[in-house]
Specification:
2 copies of one chain form a homodimer. Helix content of chain A is about 35%, strand content about 25%. Chain A is an alpha/beta fold and about 300 residues long. In chain A, strands 6-5-1-9-10-11 form a 6-stranded parallel sheet, with helices on both faces. Chain A has a 4-stranded mixed sheet with strand order 4-2-7-8. The N and C termini of chain A lie far apart (about 40 Å). Chains A, B: This is 1-phosphofructokinase.
């Protein structure tokens, strides 16, 4: 079964607590914790699964938290290829109050040992033998090799499948330089990695110049910008946001990535891929948790959105 | 080796995160988490260990968190008698900012199954065969049997050793009614369990009338009050606080309990026991974490404190 390989270099067990209100300096009795598998690549796989697109999560997983994460994914019907590592998988703790405000405490990913990253690359390479695409999403834990993402992109190229990367910081630049099919920063990540006064489309153009074949910049409520598909090298496409959508933006970028990879694999025309990605991202904002989408809203949003060429 | 049996009905893995400042509604990158065994009975055992008094922790422990808690206690040189239970042991998360303010999120203890509480009682009873005292500290998880603490006190009586209880709410009243050697509420817990206008010593006297043979009420920075030891039934003793002590009050009550049980076991005169307990409680405020005491401060404080008969 050909599937999308979703690599999550820095997975987490996402823990949610509910409180009446969060008072700094006070002691709170919280609700029973809700735990779910987290990490951006995990979220992409969940959205693909909801869309009926087979996916497998590849992630370094360690300790009881890592074992629990793999077990929870399998219990949810997801394929997972754990790469066993010594360090315990991290947690994130999100405290949600009665007004819906979310306060997050994100543990850093623990460093892997020198021989564990090659095991991750080997597992991804094996999975790519029977894959339709590679997605690499999220941050890298401290100590990850600088060339990790370029090596994964090279493995996808060797397997003849497109590679999509959603990351930030120096890793965004190094992965763009390795010639992936697509990179998807958000506007803040793009401005941080490539500061300058050439605007969003200018900075995105620099990612193209580095080597990415397509760039999609998610703009939150303002939709997204797409470069590098059909229309010639200089074409910049824009899809507006869906008006009046508010909710939980966490995971919207992951839903956008899921739509983009689905479109690339299917060979869908570029403007349609972009409109689809914007609709699915907006539908994710309406869902309760990252990695979920409101499919009914997606069906409503899709016919209202169109990519327009702006440059 | 005769030791103090420290029962912790509702243990926890205490997790501490450090942040620059806690901003409700924001996302925070936190330090590497520091995990340590928690729960009031665990803290009492740690203080006893620091004092050179052998102790064993008896606690229902479940899942990877429970296994990790037992392992961490053993690694610290503590004896532990885990009672295996199905439900995972809870966590507490404390977020400490750069100014030292601590914001705590305490998960509720998960309910034990019907046959697990009898296993706790059986384990305590076995440990009491070679014990010098019983301490039961902390809250009860939801679903704990109403007569749990009275049954533990009865087991101590059958073994011929004194029972000391530090709990709150209805459990404080039921354990006092079962005739323990000593109960130690703090002033807030006492006022909550026994509201009225007869003041701290009046309410403490009602715990004596219920059946407790001694009552010590910890008053935070104001020291403590002791009833029911030497001096006749109506005697109320008071030890003032140590002036100018500030720090981390969590665990001060547990250090007080450790000193009280040590004094009861040694047959130390009651006024000396009370002064010792106040000194050790104040020394715990100066220590970084619950279950620790500043032994040098304790040695300084001890000669400055004296119990005075106030009623």
């Amino acid at each position: 079964m050909s599937r999308v390989v979703c690599v999550t270099p820095n997975p987490a067990v996402d823990v949610t607590y509910r409180v009446g209100s969060l008072v700094p300096g006070a002691s709170h009795r919280v609700s029973d914790p809700v735990e779910r598998p987290g990490g951006k690549g995990v979220n992409v796989a969940r959205v693909l699964h909801a869309l009926g697109v087979p996916a497998v999560v590849v992630a370094p997983l360690g300790g009881p938290a890592g074992a629990g994460l793999a077990e929870a994914l399998r219990a949810g019907g997801h394929a997972v290829r754990p790469v066993p590592v010594a360090a315990e998988t991290r947690r994130t703790v999100t405290v949600v109050d009665d007004a819906g405000a979310a306060t997050a405490f994100n543990e850093p990913g623990r460093a892997l040992s020198a021989d564990e990253w090659p095991a991750v690359v080997a597992a991804v390479t094996e999975e790519l033998a029977d894959a339709v695409a590679l997605v690499v999403s999220g941050s890298l834990p401290a100590g990850a090799p600088d060339d990790l993402l370029p090596r994964l992109v090279a493995a996808a190229r060797a397997a003849g499948v497109p590679a999509v990367a959603d990351t930030s910081g120096p890793a965004l630049l190094s992965v763009a330089g390795s010639g992936p099919a697509l990179v998807k920063p958000n506007a803040d990540e793009l401005a941080e990695a490539l500061p300058g006064d050439d605007g969003v489309s200018g900075a995105a153009g620099r990612l193209l110049a580095l080597g990415a074949r397509r760039v999609v910049v998610s703009l939150g409520a303002d939709g997204l910008l797409g470069l590098g598909g059909s229309g010639g090298d200089g074409a910049v496409w824009r899809v507006a946001g869906v008006p009046g959508v508010s909710g939980n933006p966490t995971g919207a970028g992951d839903a956008t990535v899921a739509a983009l990879v689905r479109g690339l694999v299917a060979g869908t025309p570029w403007p349609e891929v972009l409109a689809d990605a914007a609709a699915l991202g907006a539908a994710a904002v309406l869902a309760a948790a990252a990695g979920e989408v409101d499919l009914a809203a997606y069906e409503r949003f899709l016919p209202t959105l169109h990519a327009e060429r702006v440059e």
